[in-house]
Design goal:
By secondary structure, the protein is mostly beta strands. The chain contains no helices and eleven strands. β4 and β5 form a beta hairpin.
Amino acid sequence: VQLQASGGGLVQAGGSLRLSCAASGLTFSLYAMGWFRQAPGKEREFLRAITRSGGVTETADSVKGRFTISRDNAKNTAYLQMNSLKPEDTAVYYCAAKRSGYSSNWALYDYWGQGTQVTVSS
């Protein structure tokens, strides 16, 4: 199983990025997907999760109204659209797959991508 996260980079505050998470080696439609991030010296933070069929579930308060999660089961890919980025959004962003139902608890996810760095300059 492999989750390949991409789309990170350096962006100015107020800008946007779209992260992608391409999955292989698993039946993608059987897995809920989640996005998390981890900044240096901080704990891993849940951002958003999406159900197997594409129903959007929980959203962290820190990104509510700014980050949108979606998925394309035909392409085995999940996305995180990030708008109105702030310097405090700087972190390594991870996608993760969880068999069956979604969760905001990172410890319950089965597979993880390698992470993609997002840096927001002020």
